[in-house]
Amino acid sequence: xxxxxxxxxxxxxxxxxxxxxxxxxxxxxxxxxxxxxxxxxxxxxxxxxxxxxxxxxxxxxxxxxxxxxxxxxxxxxxxxxxxxxxxxxxxxxxxxxxxxxxxxxxxxxxxxxxxxxxxxxxxxxxxxxxxxxxxxxxxxxxxxxxxxxxxxxxxxxxxxxxxxxxxxxxxxxxxxxxxxxxxxxxxxxxxxxxxxxxxxxxxxxxxxxxxxxxxxxxxxxxxxxxxxxxxxxxxxxxxxxxxxxxxxxxxxxxxxxxxxxxxxxxxxxxxxxxxxxxxxxxxxxxxxxxxxxxxxxxxxxxxxxxxxxxxxxxxxxxxxxxxxxxxxxxxxxxxxxxxxxxxxxxxxxxxxxxxxxxxxxxxxxxxxxxxxxxxxxxxxxxxxxxxxxxxxxxxxxxxxxxxxxxxxxxxxxxxxxxxxxxxxxxxxxxxxxxxxxxxxxxxxxxxxxxxxxxxxxxxxxxxxxxxxxxxxxxxxxxxxxxxxxxxxxxxxxxxxxxxxxxxxxxxxxxxxxxxxxxxxxxxxxxxxxxxxxxxxxxxxxxxxxxxxxxxxxxxxxxxxxxxxxxxxxxxxxxxxxxxxxxxxxxxxxxxxxxxxxxxxxxxxxxxxxxxxxx
Length: 614
Description:
Layout: H1 36-44, H2 52-55, H3 64-77, E1 81-88, E2 94-100, H4 108-114, E3 117-122, H5 131-144, E4 155-160, H6 165-169, H7 206-218, E5 222-229, E6 238-241, H8 252-270, E7 275-277, E8 279-283, E9 289-293, H9 301-307, E10 312-318, H10 323-341, H11 345-360, E11 371-377, E12 383-396, E13 403-419, E14 422-428, E15 433-436, H12 441-449, E16 455-456, E17 461-475, E18 486-499, E19 504-507, H13 513-520, H14 536-539, H15 548-561, H16 563-575, H17 577-580, H18 583-591, E20 607-609
Parallel strand pairs: 3-4, 3-5, 5-10, 6-7, 9-13
Antiparallel strand pairs: 1-2, 2-4, 6-10, 8-9, 11-14, 12-13, 15-19, 15-20, 16-19, 17-18
């Protein structure tokens, strides 16, 4: 992640290979020196199962081949471990996951029969942020080989040591200049220059398509995603984010708020960690700094899980802490998460299944509450917080000649408030389902990859449907993640529409209902329309092959025949100088209101169905 967590931003941080870059405070939690839990795991391990991180005091990390080799050594050392092939990267490397089960339930079907909670862990999605690779392997070792933890009595684990494998293998000491070790790391992006933690909905990459098949087959009850954040310096050694408001269906949200977070924070503090929610200080209503959590959307791992009604913990250790401190914090936040879940594993299982039922039950119910699709941190709802920052000083830069801020290893505890509730900015009522015309097969294929249940229609349909008409269409001025996104206004309309046979019927009375809305409601922040996957819809509807020599007579005739339209046109000319000066815009205005405009121009091709009549 790359987001600031305070008002002042650090200039840079250091990897051991870059000794000249060290403007951070070097503040470390006192308990990090001993890192008792991390040390105990290493001490208990057979030598052949130690990672390079452990053997080098976390100054080094090894190539991906070591993670694969240790995974297979764990498999040989324990009947409870199975290594799975989860796909191939663009550069031809095999992606692996480890299933850890005391029952040897190495398939989703076998796991379901055990009735145990399923926990998925992934590391290295941004492969320069890499301590999670080693700590995940250590925790598998701890539960399956040295048996220091009895988690497998009540849980099954699916662990991915490195998600972005090609990026991991692109080693350099210069990829994470702002990070305090290890000496060399991989790259944030994949070999295709894409960010996997923006790909959960659109699924452009082979890596993500492999992950989606794994996730939707196993459908874990809980997901952990391990990262290292950048930004300002502070006392905290780890921050976290979880969907826990309208962005996660209750009762799963209630389980996070009431059971998980308080217990996790208590256990982490008892081990000497300083933990905070992920966010940053920003000016509040009175101008003083207040803490605001960030609000994410389903393009990100933990909100993708939330769209599937599953709690997910985003772990963000901090790049300015020593690599060993980050590993200790990463190890402990996972360890304590598992301990917290397994205080009552059935409570989590009940919560996610009740959330599945609650979300699906809204399908076709016009009296049901709208479903949250987007929001922002509330500026009016808050509670007290002591923010554990650091004092700053200044020095004169020999480069700029100006005074430059620098963090000092001195605590600066700020009494403020935290804004960790969400104000909804976009919601939609849930129809009974959607119909996707056969011409839009790529949309249905993508939904199928996400595990969505669909069926084909056997006959053509022509009736009144609910859909959207677009206006104010604006394409982004540059490509992001390989897509030219589009913004627009969308007006809900009721129109008679013909849908050919072979359309896909997508019922919303299924557990993925919220995910479907996130993908198909066009105004949602990560909808397929917003991402630019349906841009052809926005490209039609103009004058096309009708030149000015024909368009002008059409407009002139309409102007003469319709005094109401003429008045509206003249009012726009008077109010909008830019429009008035643009001859093509003036002609387009009339053409958009003419009978010559194709009937489906600017209309969303996917329709909302409130009553199934076929």
